[in-house]
Amino acid sequence: MSIEVINVSKKFDMFTVLDNIQLKIETGELVALLGPSGSGKTTLLRIIAGLETADSGSIFFDGQDNTEKHVRDRKVGFVFQHYALFKHMTVFENIAFGLRVRPRKYRPGKEQIHKKVMELLELIKLQELANRFPAQLSGGQRQRVALARALAVEPRVLLLDEPFGALDAKVRKELRRWIRRLHDEYPVTSVFVTHDQEEALDVADRIVILNDGRIEQVGTSEEVYDNPVNPFVYNFLGNVNLFHGRIQSGKIHIGSIQMDVPEHRNIMDKKATSYARPHDIEVRRDPGDENFIQSKISFIRSVGPIVHMELQRLDTQEYIEVELNKEIYRELKVAEGDHVFVRPKGFKVFV
Questions:
Q1: Continuous H helices in 134-281
Q2: Do 236 and 224 meet the contact criterion of CB atoms below 8 Å apart?
């Protein structure tokens, strides 16, 4: 079931939540709507579900206009952040609920319902907990039950609003892995909302990055992380260092160094900012004959395979975050307070 969002806009009072959104989600895709609070991602999800009405624009499922269809006619499964399980019902009864409340002519028989629920319990690996109540389950188990309940009615589309937001970090990571495997086995077209970059990069086939009601970029994890289209995406996805300078005829000048930027060779003289991830910063004890920026190490955290360092440039007093693997760190033989030389080795320039 493909989803197409065409020119969708939405305002609450005078505040524009969604501004002319256009998006195509292919059949069987797992897509993340990612963005900061207030970017419009949950409103977009609710409009796709039919829980919210757009001021303008259309929603198509498999080429059919669903814009005016009631939520119950869209055959959408919706999973909320806080589970929304029925406390007085067992796990089995919660999953079976959607099947039992169908109109009589569409309602399966008792045996069919039992078979379907047991299949889903096996899918979510909770067969032995069928007779427990939600209060007797962990947060991760409750969220799996909520997913099974949404899948029980065989939705054409599965929508999830911050599905792991109420869980602790370790459980979130386990559930991320689980939902990726679940989607591979049960490939229903799925869209989930998150503000957690790692979660989106880890799970989704494609990521839709929203900001102030507009789509900034759509792409795979690699595309949006390695090739951000603008400074917002670069800043939003992970840590980044900013180096301010000027571009002149295909070279960027940052402090005492200059580096080639052939993609900007037609710019004669303009201010520009170079963006570099902490793992894309080269650090040396001795610069040799090459261009480097002298800095002082103000902080080192050497825990696990990656060493995190914070350096302060001596020319501008700005701070630089650096990530090195343990081997390179040991070869450098540096300590807090030492002077070193740095330069971005992988970077993107925005004029």
A1: 139-152, 169-185, 197-203, 221-226, 231-236
A2: no
